[in-house]
Amino acid sequence: MKFTPFLLVALLLSGCTPADEPVIDPELSIIPPDVAANAVALRERALDDNLSVDIVESVTTEVGARRMGTEGDRKVIAWSEAKFAELGFDRVWTEPVELDRGWERGEAHAEVLEPFAHDIVLTALGYSIGTDGDLVGEIVEFPTYDDLLAVPEGDTLAGKIAFVSYSMPDYVNPVDGSKRGAYGEGTRARGKGRVEAARRGAEALIIRSVGTSHNRFGHTGSGYNYEDGVRRIPAAAVSAPDAMLIQNILRRGKPVIFKMNLTSRFTGPQMSANIIGEITGREDPDRFVVLGAHVDSWDEGTGALDDGAGIGSMMAAAAFIGQMEQRPRRSVRVILFSGEEIGFYGVNAYIEKHRYNIDAHLLGAEVDTGGGRANTLSSRVGGSALEVVREMHTLVEPLGIEFNEANNVHAQSDMSVLSRAGMPALHLRQNPNGYFMYHHTPNDTFDKIIPEDMRYLTAAYATLFYVAAELDVDFREPALSAEILSQ
After folding, report:
1. Of 379, 274, 365, which Cα lies nearest the Cα of 314?
2. CB 301 within 8 A of CB 438
3. pLDDT > 90 fraction of the chain, expressed in percent and rounded
4. CB 7 within 8 A of CB 23
5. pTM across the whole model
6. Confidence of residue 13 (pLDDT cuts 50, 70, 90)
7. For residues 275 and 260, what is the distance between their CA atoms, to the nearest angstrom?
8. 3-state DSSP call for residue 104?
9. Cα angle at 334 between 332 and 340, to 5 degrees?
10. How confident is the model at residue 346 (pLDDT cuts 50, 70, 90)?
11. Using an 8 Å Cβ cutoff, are 213 and 170 in contact?
12. Full set of structural domains in the chain with CATH
């Protein structure tokens, strides 16, 4: 093995010896040796610092649940501003986000009345109307959302309660072994099911919770999905064990009579905000790389995984870059978006305000799948920039991260909106660590955070986005943003 002076420095910074696998390819042709060495030092610093975990602990303890438009939302805006300042960000500001209607969850009770009496655990789906007292009807099961859609519109389900029993664990993505595709399938009924059931005359919609947990609580989710001109009906998610119980009763071939009572209700318009912190670049501060997370959470847990882990990893990654001896050339912006859980309210407000300067958003990413360790780096950049991303990958490969050559992956969640508007994107796929067992439930709490995994995730994003902010590289597909913005 050949060792250049630069390689020996990199090995030393990483704690490796010449007998170990080298952490940096000595033939890097785009990333300068000093930038690579700084990146390795940054990576190792982040691996040894619990800042991202401390941030998650702080937001879950000091704020807790923070659904948009609630008191928790107002608290997390103030918390975020204070935390950005505490971490040394140069610029901190908020941008207003308007919510056209508020919502209170209220209480949820249900039981099977016939043919076998059972109490049932369920939770209102987001922005469901209430039942206005007890609602009683016969359950009609639909194994999938498509089965519900196959029923003719009209009064086919008049007086009935539609039950979509799709079970998320039934599907595993054959490409990467994940359950992401299965989650997307489940969210179809969670979102539009209430409208489609109403089109067919149903009195209410219940679904098996969208998640992989077998604990006896419901997974909430979804925003306002009613449509003008379609009767509004209540919608709720039944715990997985209770969904299975209902299926077992249905197998007896007798009518299953169900009673449910939701006290959910709508309130007036609410104001929220996106919270933005920036580490100012030393030479070209008006262009920036962007790290994102959503600051809101559902109201039944404390939002540790969804999306406290994103808040912690992205704030910490940028803070580590800001604490380096020399700031990178371009700025590093962290955006904490409001209202992701109920329909991308925050990012839609952000892009409306910043559409004119989308080209200043050089490269972006978001964390919104918990705090699991990253395992694969994907991108969506201009063809000429793909080689740069390949070299950036060599700096995080020692963290156990593979590289996906496809170059066709948009950024995640809120950042996908910016990505589709022309912002180049990176994405780190993560180990799930039971994410879909806990999210949108009372069990999304700080104890689910695995500190070492959070440190690895934070180190990866800090390394990648330091290099991206330091290099004079255009990650954009030529003329991409101009083409999209003209549409």
Report:
1. 365
2. yes
3. 85
4. no
5. 0.90
6. very low
7. 39
8. strand
9. 150
10. very high
11. no
12. 5-100+270-485 (3.40.630.10), 103-266 (3.50.30.30)
Locate 312 and state its tokens.
């912690």
As a 3-state breakdown, the chain gives helix, strand, coil percent values, each rounded to 5, of 40, 20, 40
Whether the predicted pLDDT of 174 surpasses 70: no
Cβ atoms 354, 290 nearer than 8 A? no
89 close to 279: Cβ distance less than 8 angstroms = yes
47-65 residue pLDDT tens: 999 999 999 999 999 999 9
317/466 Cα distance (integer angstroms): 9
Q: Which of 307, 270, 395 has the alpha carbon at shortest distance from 13? A: 395
Residue 91 bridge partners (DSSP): 278
Instruction: Sort 25 into a burial class: Cβ within 10 Å, 0-12 / 13-18 / 19+.
Output: middle
CA distances from 236 to 140, 204, 221, 265, 417 (A): 15, 8, 9, 14, 28
Question: Could you report the per-residue pLDDT of 351-402, keeping only the tens digit for each?
Answer: 999 999 999 999 999 999 999 999 999 999 998 899 999 999 999 999 999 9
- The mean pLDDT value for 39-53 works out to 98
Cβ-count burial of 29 within 10 angstroms (0-12 exposed, 13-18 middle, 19+ buried)?
exposed
In this predicted structure, the answer to whether residue 12 has a pLDDT above a threshold of 50 is no
Q: Which residue has the tokens 């990146």?
A: 39
Secondary structure of 30-58 as H, E, C letters? CCCHHHHHHHHHHHHHHHCCCHHHHHHHH
* CA geometry: angle 406, 407, 412, nearest 5 deg: 115
- CA terminus-to-terminus distance, the chain: 53
**What DSSP designation does 176 have?**
T
For residues 362, 83, 102, 220, the Cα torsion angle rounded to the nearest 10 degrees is 80
